[in-house]
Specification:
- Helix content is 42%, strand content 17%.
- The strands form 3 sheets. It has a 6-stranded antiparallel beta sheet with strand order 2-9-4-7-10-11.
- Helix 2 crosses helix 4.
- It has 2 domains: 161 residues, Jelly Rolls, CATH 2.60.120; 104 residues, Homeodomain-like (Arc Repressor Mutant, subunit A, Orthogonal Bundle).
- It is of the alpha+beta class.
- The C terminus is likely disordered.
């Protein structure tokens, strides 16, 4: 299995706010890659192509719009796509374009949240694509300050759109998520450092300095998941990385990620990824990857 990921040097210069390029092609021929910049990618007329974002693998529909954060591996591959006229529009911008002091303002809370989610990749809904696609197509016709204002407006509208879907369970980067709560952040830091060990609700509630029942309600309200679901998501994310990046047996990987029961690991993995660990590894290894 090839684990090579190309480190792309994008055409975006330090003097540019963003770059946009559009192309029509017959196949996807760029390898699995990552880069420092944020990327918004619109793909039209490519039903059946394969999408890889972090540890996520999926087959795309006719039209899709994905937002990828810095240093997250990603790529699209021809797979079962039969189209001879795939249209792709890619927008890339520096991660410093919106620094933390700027994003910390109340009026930018939705964009800030979207940027945090983009570290694992975001897939937008069909209704959002229909609304945003004409604006993406016409963005290249704008110049100077008007183009920057339109990009910010597009990002804002995407950030408040409904039914956006986070793709990867694990991030490839060292960026820090902001859970808008130091207690939640400390708990997730602990779980990410100790996912291979047994972790109890009692432990994490103590870290958060809260009673167990109060913490259970708190984490569910803050992130929309229970403590157990959050821990399993972290473990499956790390297991996905090991399935991709190592030749360790599936049993070894399950044990290293805190699963002491193979049937439990297989069940949780399939529920999270819609595929078994073996199918996931086989599917990933069949991807066309170059270096």
């Amino acid at each position: 299995m090839s684990n090579n990921v190309v480190r792309e040097i994008t055409p975006l210069t330090p003097s540019d706010c963003f770059t946009i390029f559009s192309r029509v092609k017959k196949e996807f021929d760029f390898p699995l890659h990552n880069h420092e910049e944020y990327e918004l990618n619109l793909i039209v007329n490519a039903a059946g192509a394969k999408r890889i974002i972090g540890d996520h693998i999926g087959t795309i529909t006719n039209t899709e719009l994905v937002f990828v954060g810095p240093n997250l591996r990603h790529g699209w591959f021809t797979h079962e796509c039969k189209s001879n006229e795939i249209k792709e529009i890619t927008i890339q911008f520096h991660k410093e374009l919106f620094d933390q002091s700027f994003l910390g303002r109340n009026q930018l809370s939705f964009i800030r949240g979207m940027f945090e989610r983009s570290l694992k990749g975001i897939l937008f809904s069909e209704s959002t694509i229909l609304a945003i696609q004409p604006r993406l197509l016409s963005l290249s016709q704008k110049n100077g300050f008007d183009s920057v204002l339109e990009l910010m407006s597009i990002l804002h509208d995407l950030s408040i759109s409904r039914n956006m879907h986070t793709l990867s369970l694990a991030a490839d980067n060292n960026e820090t998520f902001n859970y808008n709560s130091r207690r939640i952040q400390k708990v997730f830091e602990y779980m990410n450092q100790n996912y291979h060990q047994q972790i109890t609700l009692t432990e994490v509630a103590k870290i958060a300095n809260m009673p167990e029942a109060s913490f259970s309600r708190f984490i569910k309200k803050r992130i929309g998941k229970t403590f157990v679901d959050s821990l399993n998501e972290i473990r499956v994310g790390h297991a996905s990385r090991l399935l991709i990046d190592t030749t360790n047996t599936i049993g070894e990987i399950a044990f290293r990620c805190g699963f002491n029961n193979m049937s439990n690991f297989n069940r949780i993995f399939k529920r999270r990824k819609n595929t078994t660990p073996k199918e996931f590894r086989d599917n990933y290894s069949g991807t066309r990857v170059f270096i």
